Amino acid sequence: MTPLLPFQLLLVVGLLSPLIPGSHKEFFLKYILEPPPCKLAPVNCNQFCTLQEDCPKELQCCSAYCGIVCTLNKF
């Protein structure tokens, strides 16, 4: 591997990143950190979560109209 190859890759990534719509922070917050939307409306909005580990096994952490809650997220 030549010493210039890493710099060439950084240059290509740097030139292509402005062509991607939106910012990297926006993408990270929306698709990585935010849980998926709830399939059904939650029965009660009193058990909030930030990660899946905050919920009991039978419940899933998802985003609903009242915030990010633990709910039974099955049809």
Automatic annotation (TrEMBL):
Example GO molecular function: peptidase inhibitor activity
Domain of life: Eukaryota
Signal peptide interval: 1-25
Domain WAP residue range list: 41-71
UniProt keyword Signal, yes or no: yes
The protein's name in its UniProt record: WAP four-disulfide core domain 13
UniProt cross-references to SUPFAM superfamilies, sorted A to Z: Elafin-like
Alphabetized UniProt keyword annotations: Signal
GO cellular component: a single term: extracellular region
Source organism per UniProt: Jaculus jaculus (Lesser Egyptian jerboa)
